[in-house]
Amino acid sequence: MDTRLNVILVIATTLLVLAGCSFQSYEAAESKGSFDDNFSIMWSQDHFTTSKDGQIWYLSLDNDTGCGFQTKQRYRFGWFSMKLKLVGGDSAGVVTAYYMCSENGAGPERDELDFEFLGNRTGEPYLIQTNIYKNGTGNREMRHQLWFDPTQDYHTYSILWNTHQIVFFVDRVPIRVFKNNGKANKFFPNEKPMYLFSSIWNADEWATRGGLEKTNWKLSPFVSSYKDFSVDACQWKDPYPDCVSTTTNNWWDQYSAWHLSADQKNDYAWVQRNLVIYDYCNDSQRFPTLPEECSLSPWD
Ligand SMILES: *[C@@H]1O[C@H](CO)[C@@H](O)[C@H](O)[C@H]1NC(C)=O
Ligand SMILES: *[C@@H]1O[C@H](CO)[C@@H](O)[C@H](O)[C@H]1NC(C)=O
Ligand SMILES: *[C@@H]1O[C@H](CO)[C@@H](O)[C@H](O)[C@H]1NC(C)=O
Ligand SMILES: *[C@@H]1O[C@H](CO)[C@@H](O)[C@H](O)[C@H]1NC(C)=O
Ligand SMILES: *[C@@H]1O[C@H](CO)[C@@H](O)[C@H](O)[C@H]1NC(C)=O
After folding, report:
1. Which of 27, 103, 116, 293 is catalytic?
2. Which of 34, 38, 194 best tests ligand 1's pocket when mutated (most atoms within 8 Å of CB)?
3. Would you list the domain boundaries of the chain?
4. Which atom of ligand 5 is nearest to the CA of 272?
5. N or C: lower Cβ tally within 10 Å for the chain?
6. Which of 29-38, 82-91, 145-154, 235-244 has the lowest mean pLDDT?
7. Environment class of 298 (CB within 10 Å of its CB; exposed 0-12, middle 13-18, buried 19+)
8. Rounded to 5 degrees, what angle do the CA atoms 24, 263, 8 make?
9. Where's the active site on this chain (predicted)?
């Protein structure tokens, strides 16, 4: 915990110095611009609203349509973070996706890093599914339980992405580590810059234990809430930005970000012991020969 806090403080201090502020909290150092500075609506503008001050965003789903937004910029490597509060009550069938993707469609060559929150019947636990696509191929699902009710309050969901590892964090606890092997391969997305997206949609044909439970439309609209978008990353510029990873000028590309810290390993071990519901690397029925990346150790 201490090391993590120190890292946050160092980053926050750096931001404050850059911003020329003398006394301000880390929260205040995050992007407080308007939605339109960094995001656009992908579909159904009329299912998107904000709080009065514009700092909290709401996406809603009804029997007509869901809604989604995306960043205007693409990024390649960095730290991507946002606070989400998910649909409460009976939300079976409702999926809130929070993800990065190299395209704004489901193209056959896309790279993608997914967080998906699978709603449930009242009182039953939400599951969080993560997946990784390279060049259009995913099938790398993991499912986790959370240690809190994600519909009661905002929690922080983050992705660390560099050329050595991709780590999914929940409130700064690493829940999934996906390693590269340092060679040209077909599993680790590290070439294509990605946008950040979020959307809410109906997935009652697959999300709820294979479609057993149907969305209860009487309860719609279903609303997910967002705030504190925070990105510390290399913003893409064609043909190539200054901040490419080979410079290791940025903390997310440096040696300490190539593997988990000792504290993060403790947290990760706890998650592995207690919260993993499904791991594709443990599914030998589905993969008689386990995928190549499954042999890479998250502890290295
Ligand atoms: C958000 O938008 C502002 C204004 O266009 C821009 O200066 C900033 O770099 C953007 N932030 C990110 C993280 O893309
Ligand atoms: C959608 O919901 C509205 C309001 O509850 C209802 O009037 C309408 O018939 C529904 N439409 C469909 C296609 O189910
Ligand atoms: C990426 O996928 C496309 C479409 O499936 C395929 O034609 C291409 O060879 C793939 N590229 C690489 C580098 O694997
Ligand atoms: C919903 O709750 C049930 C019962 O606790 C659980 O088996 C299931 O994995 C949960 N998630 C989904 C998406 O159905
Ligand atoms: C991994 O597979 C074994 C054998 O099928 C099973 O007992 C175990 O619960 C699985 N663990 C996870 C995390 O899926």
Report:
1. 116
2. 38
3. 1-30, 35-295
4. 13
5. N
6. 29-38
7. middle
8. 15
9. 112, 116
